[in-house]
Amino acid sequence: QLQLVESGGGLVQPGGSLTLSCAGSGFTLEHYAIGWFRQAPGKEREGVSCISSRGERTKIADSVKGRFTISRDNAKNTVYLQMNSLKPEDTAIYYCARYGTTLCLIEALDAWGQGTLVTVSS
Q1: Are strands 68-73 and 78-83 parallel, antiparallel or unpaired?
Q2: Which of 4, 44, 82, 114 has the greatest number of beta carbons closer than 10 A?
Q3: What is the C-alpha separation between 10 and 105, in angstroms, rounded?
Q4: Which residues are CB-neighbours of 66 under 8 A, at least 6 positions away?
Q5: Higher pLDDT, 66 or 107
Q6: Which helix (H) or strand (E) segment is 50 a member of?
């Protein structure tokens, strides 16, 4: 059974850091691009970052560029999102998703995790 499970969310002060993990099971993660998305209260879901199946290509949203970094460890079937210099506006539920291909093609999204809550507040 295909599953994506996010972890690592929590409460952090502004300026702090968190690392989110997305663990895949029921499929071979290294064959697929994986993305991170977020949805803040009252807002639409937005793309944050994505990484191709072998990690050679990444995309990052302008709103988090220079602060967030995506990476993957295919041996561990896990994709990470390192988040630094967090701001209150980063507060959201963060989801990872699988693209049904090796590249980050938005039309190829085919599976989602349940999400993990990140709250940035003093």
Answers
A1: antiparallel
A2: 4
A3: 29
A4: none
A5: 66
A6: strand 46-51
